[in-house]
């Protein structure tokens, strides 16, 4: 630990959430070790190189599939943020290509933490897909940290993106078991659809889905529709709040599972909100089949009661911020404007 700074390791440093988390840690004065699979890829790590001007940031090569490859990166760290995870939603063989690698990857990082002996807490990034993907009768269900997606139902019925939901459930449970067996403090942050500016130079799933009603991208829109159908709502949170929640849970909260969600909405209400607030874009609002009350919503009360305060509490705040970013970066530049 150099100059008395707290040290943290963030895995998957070239990812959407991880990049913002790294920036926040540096601003708070942490020394940060970021791991990437290919540190020689100058394009993928360009944003990390730029952030080295903010503070003490070192870049390490590590791969979830290689046990021991995280040893050097986590050595001396108090906190390890396990953000990296396989996210292949179109996998034809989820058991082998997504679920098994996700579990083994998380445990490989945790094994390195045991060796390090310096790690006070591991913070695992999960997903709301591990909470709400199950068969529910009726509407209006409020789901909290006691709720788990139904692995047996998912494996039997195989709804779209079922493998990702199964992987998130099993990673959480296996990580919890490993932590108990090895006397490691583990907290899990379970975010909903993450919305907000991106620091990485490539397109990402969360940003694409959150802007799909504006961009008209059919692939991202299809995933948004799947989210509504499978989980029962479209629940969102700003990327800055997700990362602030990671740091809060690492430093200040009891171990355990924490849902991170600001807004519960649905495709119909979201489309109508976007059409009204941003009339310069042709937003399709023909989603009357989703007008019914949400099948479920996600509660973030546990995180709030622990002392966390959201910065972006209203949907207007969240979307104003991401759309300003999207305009500046040209993501919305090719949008067809309505005829006058």
Q: How do the SSEs run, as a string of H and E?
A: EHEHEHEHEHEHHEEHHHEHEEHEHH
Beta-strand content: 15-25%
Q: For the record, give the distance between the C-alpha atoms at the N and C termini, rounded to a whole number.
A: 61 Å
Estimated radius of gyration: 20 Å
CATH fold topology = Rossmann fold
Given the C-alpha coordinates, what overall shape results?
A: globular
Let me know the average pLDDT.
Answer: 92
- Judged by helices, strands and strand pairing, the structural class is alpha/beta
Q: Quickly give the CATH architecture.
A: 3-Layer(aba) Sandwich
User: What is the CATH domain class?
Assistant: Alpha Beta
Helix content range: 40-55%
Strand order of the largest sheet: 3-2-1-4-5-7-10
CATH superfamily: NAD(P)-binding Rossmann-like Domain
Q: Number of domains in the coordinates?
A: 1
Number of distinct beta strands: 12
Notes on the structure:
- It is a single chain.
- The chain is 43% helix and 15% strand.
- The protein has 14 helices and twelve strands.
- The strands form three sheets. Strands 3-2-1-4-5-7-10 form a seven-stranded parallel beta sheet, sandwiched between helices. The protein has a three-stranded mixed beta sheet with strand order 8-9-11.
- It is globular.
- 47% of the residues are buried.
- Mean pLDDT is 92; it is low at 334-340.
């Amino acid at each position: 630990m150099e100059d008395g700074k707290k040290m943290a390791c963030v895995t998957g440093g070239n990812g959407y959430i991880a990049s913002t988390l790294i920036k926040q840690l540096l601003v708070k004065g942490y020394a940060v070790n970021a791991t990437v699979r290919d540190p020689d890829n100058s394009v993928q790590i360009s944003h990390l190189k730029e952030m080295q001007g903010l503070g003490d940031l070192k870049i390490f090569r590590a791969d979830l599939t290689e046990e021991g490859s995280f040893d050097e990166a986590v050595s001396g760290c108090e906190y390890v943020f396990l953000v990296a995870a396989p996210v292949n939603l179109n996998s034809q063989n989820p058991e082998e290509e997504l679920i098994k690698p996700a579990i083994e990857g998380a445990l490989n990082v945790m094994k390195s933490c045991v060796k390090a002996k310096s790690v006070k807490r591991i913070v695992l990034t999960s997903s709301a897909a591990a909470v709400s993907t199950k068969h529910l009768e009726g509407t209006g269900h409020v789901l909290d940290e006691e709720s788990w997606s139904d692995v047996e139902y998912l494996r039997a019925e195989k709804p779209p993106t079922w493998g990702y939901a199964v992987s998130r459930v099993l990673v959480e449970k296996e990580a919890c078991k490993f932590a108990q067996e090895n006397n490691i403090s583990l907290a899990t942050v379970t975010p909903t659809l993450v919305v907000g500016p991106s620091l990485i130079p490539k397109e990402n799933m969360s940003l694409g889905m959150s802007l799909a009603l504006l961009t008209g991208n059919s692939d991202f829109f299809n995933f948004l529709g799947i989210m509504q159908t499978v989980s029962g709502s479209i629940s969102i949170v700003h990327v800055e709040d997700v990362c602030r929640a990671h740091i809060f849970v690492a430093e200040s909260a009891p171990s355990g599972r924490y849902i991170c969600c600001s807004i519960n909405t649905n495709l119909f209400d979201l489309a109508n909100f976007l059409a009204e607030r941003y009339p310069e874009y042709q937003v399709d609002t023909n989603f009357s089949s989703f007008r019914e009350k949400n099948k479920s919503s996600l509660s973030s009360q546990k995180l709030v009661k622990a002392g966390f305060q959201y910065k972006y509490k209203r949907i207007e705040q969240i979307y104003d911020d991401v759309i300003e970013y999207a305009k500046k970066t040209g993501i919305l530049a090719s949008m067809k404007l309505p005829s006058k």
